[in-house]
Amino acid sequence: MNNNLLYSVEDKPPFGLSLLLAAQHLLAALGGIIAVPLVIGNVLKLPTEDTITLVNAALLISGVVTIIQCRGIGPIGIRLPSVMGTSFTFVAAALAIGFSEYGVAGIMGASLVGSLVMIIGSFFMPYIRKLFPPVVTGTVVMMIGLSLIPVAVDWFAGGQVGDENYATPENLLMATFVLVIVVTLVQWGKGIFSAAAIVIGMMTGYVVALCLGWVSFDGVNNAQTFAVPQPLHFGLAFPISGIIGMSIAYLVTIVESSGNFLALGNATQTEITGKHLRGGVLCDGLGSALAAIMSTTPFSSFSQNIGVISLTGVASRHVVALTGVLLALAGLFPVFGALIVSIPLPVLGGAGLMMFAMIIAAGIQMLDNIPRSKRNGLIIAISIGCGLAVTTRPELLDKLPHFFKEVLGSGITVGSLLALILNLILPEDKIPENH
């Protein structure tokens, strides 16, 4: 983590530079934002135009909610550089509803009603904040980084395990090339070259990939130039079991978002209060309700972008609000999103591996400041061990009832819940052991 921020939360870099720095956050988030609607569209075998509706709405509403989260409206928004996007936490619940007789209308209705869990929960965040002392916060931040590493590794290798081109020497070379550029610019670059290291590294990789003929423009050629997402495109239905499933996913997201916001506070050198968490989670819940009305899936804060801040030292909320503007434009101009999606995975992987590893480093630094005691060691070890167990071997939960798979499907959630519970039940050490 950078101890000296290039731009702090309230700084406003010049517009041209801000645009470049905002593009950096856009590149980090875009894949994750469109992944959820693409997965739901493909698994439920929706018509292409319906999947495009899900994607466009996800981009547009991500942009709007990101702007509100960064700038704030009254009590809504954390007023820190937080990118918001569709969350994988809701995929299992969404697919279960999608395959029922209620279809996509059921997903939207259950999302809308379930968002009340987050909206109401936000008012209890000052109390929830007390459950996150440094040992819990550091563990959660570290678990966020660790759970993102497998994603970065697959990007680095150019796809999924089992793909024909997975981890070919060419893919690994391309990703390493981008990684070396990013590291070099962060370490030795000055001014804009250091601040925009990720976007410069990815643009360089993209140009090389273009010269090698790796870039496919099929998506760009087939994309509409302009499209406005339609409210209630799929209609609304309210299945009781679906609402329960979505409500559980929203409870999990409160824990996950709290962890992300605490990690964001660490990256931006901001003391996160209960008021911050209340504004952030309220924005998250209201954004998810808006997403349901505008025909896409629920939202949460994006941990990828905390890595961008940690790596570059650019913590300006005005830069990330501009990212929100770019995301909204991508939702209105699908051809723009299609162009971003044409970036080859190894190019993303070279930057992604570095960004997510920086979140782990931030967690280690936070844990370095707590007393070294048997109790703290147990909290960290059990939480991270079990969180990694779920992250690396999700099959571990396959034979459990659906409810448990739903709640424990994310390593971040498992690690966070265990850290919270262990911190509450393990007795305090009388004398810390000095090692």
UniProtKB/TrEMBL annotation:
<feature type="transmembrane region" description="Helical">
    <location>
        <begin position="20"/>
        <end position="40"/>
    </location>
</feature>
<keyword id="KW-1003">Cell membrane</keyword>
<comment type="similarity">
    <text>Belongs to the nucleobase:cation symporter-2 (NCS2) (TC 2.A.40) family.</text>
</comment>
<keyword id="KW-0812">Transmembrane</keyword>
<keyword id="KW-1133">Transmembrane helix</keyword>
<keyword id="KW-0472">Membrane</keyword>
<dbReference type="InterPro" id="IPR017588">
    <property type="entry name" value="UacT-like"/>
</dbReference>
<keyword id="KW-0813">Transport</keyword>
<feature type="transmembrane region" description="Helical">
    <location>
        <begin position="407"/>
        <end position="426"/>
    </location>
</feature>
<feature type="transmembrane region" description="Helical">
    <location>
        <begin position="347"/>
        <end position="364"/>
    </location>
</feature>
<feature type="transmembrane region" description="Helical">
    <location>
        <begin position="80"/>
        <end position="99"/>
    </location>
</feature>
<dbReference type="InterPro" id="IPR006043">
    <property type="entry name" value="NCS2"/>
</dbReference>
<dbReference type="GO" id="GO:0005886">
    <property type="term" value="C:plasma membrane"/>
</dbReference>
<dbReference type="GO" id="GO:0042907">
    <property type="term" value="F:xanthine transmembrane transporter activity"/>
</dbReference>
<feature type="transmembrane region" description="Helical">
    <location>
        <begin position="52"/>
        <end position="68"/>
    </location>
</feature>
<feature type="transmembrane region" description="Helical">
    <location>
        <begin position="195"/>
        <end position="216"/>
    </location>
</feature>
<feature type="transmembrane region" description="Helical">
    <location>
        <begin position="131"/>
        <end position="152"/>
    </location>
</feature>
<dbReference type="Pfam" id="PF00860">
    <property type="entry name" value="Xan_ur_permease"/>
</dbReference>
<dbReference type="InterPro" id="IPR006042">
    <property type="entry name" value="Xan_ur_permease"/>
</dbReference>
<feature type="transmembrane region" description="Helical">
    <location>
        <begin position="376"/>
        <end position="392"/>
    </location>
</feature>
<protein>
    <submittedName>
        <fullName>UraA protein</fullName>
    </submittedName>
</protein>
<feature type="transmembrane region" description="Helical">
    <location>
        <begin position="105"/>
        <end position="124"/>
    </location>
</feature>
<feature type="transmembrane region" description="Helical">
    <location>
        <begin position="236"/>
        <end position="255"/>
    </location>
</feature>
<feature type="transmembrane region" description="Helical">
    <location>
        <begin position="172"/>
        <end position="188"/>
    </location>
</feature>
<feature type="transmembrane region" description="Helical">
    <location>
        <begin position="319"/>
        <end position="341"/>
    </location>
</feature>
